[in-house]
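Q: Hi! First time doing this. I have a protein sequence and I read that you can turn it into a structure. Is that right? Here it is:
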Amino acid sequence: MTEQSIEALVADAKRVGEAVSVAGAGMVDREVLAEVVALCAVAGEHLLVVGAPGTAKSEAVRRVAGQLGGRYFEYLLGRFTEPNELFGPVDLRLLREGRVEFETAGMLPEAEIAFLDEVFLGSTAVLNTLLGLLNERVFRRGRTVLASPLRVCVGAANSMPEDPALAAFADRFLARIFVEPVPDARLEELLEAGRRAAPVPLDSTSLLGAVDRLATAAQACDLADVTPLVGAAVRRLRGAGVALSDRRAVRAQRLIAAAAVLDGRTAATAQDLWVIPLIAPTADAQKLARDTLADLVEKSSNSSLVYAAEELSRGALARAERLARTAAALLTEHGSAPGDRDVRLRVEATLREMDAGFDLSDLPESLAGVRAQLVAAVRS
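A: Yes, that's right. Below is the predicted 3D structure, encoded as structure tokens:
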């Protein structure tokens, strides 16, 4: 790849990262979910979000879709949902000519980003058609055969299905996020966020072109150096009792490659292993995966997906990236001499978090400069 191409890759990663940051910033404790939606869109994989009703699963996905642009489809499935509610009605004009085809305009087969709530409640007819659409990105029904432009489908459920018959369908969602209600300690933030309007798109043009270029770069990403580490990680997880099929292990490489290109690189490294816990099938398995892989993922970081890299790796470098971004945003928004009391408290809280997490004599380079600026702002 030429130097010019790498510059273009970095620029695309930065645009997508900034858009996702705006989508997540207006919400409380949903930044990781917003970032993983973008990760999956670049990887060409689907995401399953599991959590209680009312935990802003759909809102997070809707905001990311709004920032990335493109055609968005959202639907709440139920036991009695008819296939035509998702895939479109029969084309009556063609039916009179004896042909069974479907009108798909504005429906799921033509969506670029999709959110399906209560996804496991769909009927057998709905799930069978969905299976083909998710697997092959091709919609087949009657005589209608349509190449789907779907980048990512996010399925949501209140809990994982217990019916073994749904296991094969659930396995099509490679990445999984388990969300909890916002903790009581952050209720004031939640109430304040709930009063704010959803952010307007950062870019007036669709960012799906940038997502597609990053997806192409991810397909060509060099995984040679990281392959032994991925093998070691999968062996450790299986040894610890985390059930990982060969298919999930192989496809995890797509998430790793996507993480690398979203960090502006054409080759994956140990920095990108933080995505591996996402493929563990349950919340308990994901916690076990983080503990089991702690030393392998401690060097993780990502300049575009700072919250997800920190949360899934709990590594120092990822935390430094996130704090550096928070500090830079405070300085950009409020200047080097904030007069507002609440802003000064936020600056002081950020400084306290930096000092609690890092030894000043060994402060990461990404934090050193912004910490000095924050100290000057507090003393001004």
